[in-house]
Structure to design on (402 residues):
């Protein structure tokens, strides 16, 4: 790519998407989130190895997601003012360190330290990667975010499958082999960082004027609050559903660990497929209908899930994954359009809040499971998607400059 200012279009929104960059950043997202999901998929192994309670299982999730939650908005805010293109390979290297610690962890404390390194890697990776996806979108912001997100969801889905094929038969130390994927991610991100550095320098040289929000400040703040409520609903529910899904299947239906992990893969794969839909549909019909349908629309299926047999449990979780996962791309792009010029901060805030709610949900629901049962937890969380009704409070029209 010619990196001189004169060769670049004055408005990235008028050029086509940079598919090579979107593909690289999506693949890197796959690698990053696959390594995260290995922790999730290893829960039954770690529980047996270190004799953990459900509360301690939830604490592992809380550690890496809370680390990411607290740091992502700060990193996003900082990089809005001073972009750090070469931070992306560093973030992947942090995740690699966490993975290696997890492979050789001799105690529960080291497992938590490994989770913190993975959280740090995600905190660095997500805000800048989301900014690059928008920069490479060619104006198709929802499409670009969906391409970026589907990589992450695919990685999350593949993790349990790989754990069932490699980690369950060969043990905890076999996790170290997945470091090769992290090295691939670092190589890809070095190329992305090179493109980002050249592209950002060109944009800065053009001195494009700042874009104002299409809404008054009070409307923006109210809409952001509504979107955060929706993120809470989605990720608190997902935390309960995914963190304890293997245990739920093992306890309720007597499945083996490998079979339960395969069912977890089916749910997470459905979530990855659903991610593809939300962004492009939002580009065509607006973000609000997609947000409304994806959160509130999943409520009937969530309420039926605790009462279903194994076949219908699998079928319902596929529907839940397809519908619910379409929300995040639409929510993120909607928020970015509410606050143009603050892509890093907004991305960091929403990724961070999502991670935080997922971690808090896993910890709280793990303690609840210890005191009651996994089945009770599934009954309790089934009501959370009803919070999707607050989407009615979002501004009716789409922000300008979609």
């Amino acid at each position: 790519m010619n990196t001189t200012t004169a060769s670049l279009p004055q408005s990235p929104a008028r050029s086509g998407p940079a598919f090579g960059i979107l593909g690289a950043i999506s693949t890197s997202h796959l690698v990053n989130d696959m390594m995260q999901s290995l922790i999730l998929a290893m829960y039954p192994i770690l529980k047996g190895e270190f004799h953990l309670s459900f509360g301690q299982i939830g604490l592992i999730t809380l550690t890496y997601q809370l680390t990411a939650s607290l740091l992502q908005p700060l990193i996003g805010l900082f990089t809005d003012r001073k972009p750090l293109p070469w931070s992306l390979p560093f973030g992947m290297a942090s995740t690699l360190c966490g993975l290696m610690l997890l492979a050789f962890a001799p105690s529960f404390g080291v497992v938590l330290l490994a989770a913190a390194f993975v959280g740090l890697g995600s905190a660095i990776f997500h805000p800048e990667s989301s900014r690059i996806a928008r920069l490479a979108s060619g104006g198709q912001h929802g499409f670009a975010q969906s391409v970026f997100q589907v990589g992450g969801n695919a990685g999350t889905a593949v993790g349990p499958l790989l754990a069932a094929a490699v980690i369950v038969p060969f043990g905890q130390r076999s996790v170290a082999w997945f470091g090769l994927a992290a090295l691939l991610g670092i190589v890809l991100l070095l190329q992305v960082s090179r493109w980002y550095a050249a592209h950002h320098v060109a944009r800065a040289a053009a001195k494009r004027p700042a874009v104002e929000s299409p809404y008054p400040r009070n409307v923006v703040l109210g809409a952001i609050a509504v979107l955060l409520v929706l993120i809470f609903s989605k990720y608190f529910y997902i935390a309960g559903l995914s963190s304890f899904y293997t245990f739920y299947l093992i306890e309720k239906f007597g499945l083996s660990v490998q079979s339960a992990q395969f069912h977890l893969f089916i749910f997470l794969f459905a979530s990855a497929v659903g991610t593809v839909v939300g962004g492009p549909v939002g580009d065509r019909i607006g973000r609000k209908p997609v947000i409304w349908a994806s959160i509130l629309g999943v409520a009937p299926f969530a309420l039926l899930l605790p009462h279903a047999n194994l076949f219908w449990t699998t079928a319902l979780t596929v529907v839940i994954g397809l519908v619910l996962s379409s929300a995040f791309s639409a929510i993120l792009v909607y928020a970015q359009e509410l606050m143009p010029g603050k892509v890093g901060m907004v991305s960091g805030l929403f990724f961070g809040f999502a991670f935080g709610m997922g971690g808090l949900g896993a910890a709280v629901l793990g303690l609840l499971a210890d005191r009651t049962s996994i089945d009770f937890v599934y009954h309790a969380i089934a009501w959370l998607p009803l919070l999707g009704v607050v989407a009615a409070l979002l501004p009716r029209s789409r922000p300008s400059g979609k």
